[in-house]
Amino acid sequence: MDRLSHPWRSVLYIPGSKERALEKAKGLPADAIIFDLEDAVAIEEKPRARALLAETLRSADYGQRARIVRINGLDTDWGRDDVAAMVGVPLEAILIPKVNSAADVQAVADLIPDVDLWAMMETPLGMLNAAGIAAHPRLVGMVMGTNDLAKDLGTRFRADRLPMITGLGLCLLAARAHGVTIVDGVYNAFKDAEGLRAECTQGRDMGFDGKTLIHPDQLAVANEVFAPSEAEIDLARRQIAAFDAAKAEGQGVAVVDGKIVENLHIVTAQATLAKAQAIAALSAG
Ligand SMILES: CC(C)(COP(=O)(O)OP(=O)(O)OC[C@H]1O[C@@H](n2cnc3c(N)ncnc32)[C@H](O)[C@@H]1OP(=O)(O)O)[C@@H](O)C(=O)NCCC(=O)NCCSC(=O)C[C@H](O)C(=O)O
Ligand SMILES: [Mg+2]
Questions:
Q1: Helix or strand (DSSP H, E) at 13
Q2: pLDDT tens for residues 42-92?
Q3: Which residues of the sequence carry a binding annotation for Mg(2+) (predicted)?
Q4: Strand partners for 143
């Protein structure tokens, strides 16, 4: 499945050093996995995690789950070796942490050809340069890093994420302007399903494609919230049918449930049905 039709509802981080989690993930209902070599791996574990991950990705079957590897930054002792270890390894993308500008994307692009690149959006400079980062020709995905962003901004964690909204919005605008996939940041309280649901709903309403997760228990909520609901699928079908009927009568506008339906609403309705189909195909596969 290509990136544009692939669902990105649930994107699960797995520390690259944890064999048990790497094994468990082969059977988890995640749309994508971020195999982490950065913050989830202790300094003394970095070389072992890198070798373990390269070997695991060469030999293991993760089915249709997209495989993304988060490397350490090139300004660290491990970043270049991480990239070198991933050359020729079967994966969908490399995720670059703490991207401040398009030059940070280019620096990794120079080291590894033919691999899609994703950017962690988690610094104040990254927010301000989001449009330039999204426009980089090798960049196809963005991941919000709301923990690092909160740290750098000095914000408090609030349920409504008000201090984050400007950054989230800037990155969403940049991603949509350049056809880049974008997933929301993690919800740290991994035992709080209600809080996770509220934050997923906020992210979905804003327009994110999905949410990054840290624990398997978070998968079901993200998969549900970021999928079209039965009501949305039913409405999409009725909008398309009503618009086709209106067109056949020479009209450019239909009315469904007391609301107008124009060509642009049909684009959204078709996207809703396409996403539902892609999710069904992923679940079946
Ligand atoms: C948070 C955890 C440390 C909790 O781990 P643990 O105590 O082992 O949880 P459980 O005992 O409940 O685990 C039950 C089973 O599930 C497996 N497991 C746990 N987590 C994962 C996972 N992420 N992927 C796959 N499998 C997982 C356990 O192995 C148990 O399996 P089994 O024994 O076979 O039943 C832990 O969940 C964890 O380490 N999570 C990932 C943390 C992480 O990756 N952090 C970095 C990314 S977040 C970030 O950096 C954001 C960004 O950069 C920012 O700035 O915001
Ligand atoms: Mg981070």
A1: strand 10-15
A2: 999 999 999 999 999 999 999 999 999 999 999 999 999 999 999 999 999
A3: 122, 148
A4: 120, 183
ipTM of model: 0.98
CA dist., res. 120 & res. 157, Å (int) = 19
Q: Known binder of ligand: residue 176?
A: no
Beta carbons of 24 and 60 less than 8 angstroms apart: no
> Considering just the CA atoms, what is the radius of gyration of the chain in Å?
20
- Bridge-based pairing state of the strands 259-261 and 254-256: antiparallel
CB atoms within 10 A of CB 237: 13
* CA 268/CA 167 separation, integer angstroms: 25
**DSSP-based three-state secondary structure for 72:** coil
Question: Which one-letter amino acid corresponds to residue 166?
Answer: T
Residue 159 identity (one-letter amino acid): A
Q: Would you say how long the chain is, in residues?
A: 285
* Ligand 1 centroid, distance to 34 Cα (angstroms): 12
Residue 118, helix vs strand vs coil: strand
Instruction: Give the binding-site residues of ligand 1, using a 6 Å CB cut-off.
Output: 12-15, 20-21, 24-25, 36, 39-40, 120, 122, 145-148, 185-186, 190, 214-216
pLDDT at 138 over 90: yes
Q: Whose CA is nearest to atom 29 of ligand 1?
A: 21
**The pTM is what?**
0.97
Provide CB contacts within 8 A for 268, sequence distance 6+: 236
Ligand 1 centroid – CA 245 distance (Å): 51
CB distance 254 to 236 below 8 Å = no
Confirm if 227 and 10 have CB atoms less than 8 A apart. Answer: no
CA of 262 to the centre of ligand 2 (A): 41
3-state secondary structure of 212: strand
CA distances from 92 to 76, 139, 143 (A): 23, 12, 15
Q: What element of type H or E holds 254?
A: strand 254-256
